[in-house]
Design goal:
Blueprint lengths: L2 E7 L2 E7 L12 H16 L3 E4 L6 H9 L17
Parallel strand pairs: 2-3
Antiparallel strand pairs: 1-2
């Protein structure tokens, strides 16, 4: 599974991939690569200027996969405000 979110922003349409997950029985068969490679294709078709994916640094295999597919690491800091009650 990969969720691709399209974000219409003042700087243009952007895309963000979230939740790249493959069931345990499907791991090691290239499913994550196929899913991830579709994100830029779909983004291009919709006119998105960029596609972002996030991953924790300790997910080394996922990060290597993203780089093999052409994604480049960005120097940025994410600040999150905890939601809820």
């Amino acid at each position: 599974m990969l969720t691709l979110v399209l974000l219409p922003l003042p700087s243009g349409l952007r895309a963000r991939g979230e939740g790249v997950m493959v069931d345990g029985t499907g791991r090691g068969r290239g499913a994550a690569g196929l899913l991830t490679a579709e994100a830029p294709r779909i983004a291009r078709e919709t006119g998105a200027r960029t596609v972002d994916l996030t991953s924790r640094p300790d997910r080394e295999a996922a990060n290597r996969l993203y780089e093999r597919l052409g994604f480049r690491s960005r120097r940025s800091t994410v600040h999150r405000f905890p939601g809820g009650g």
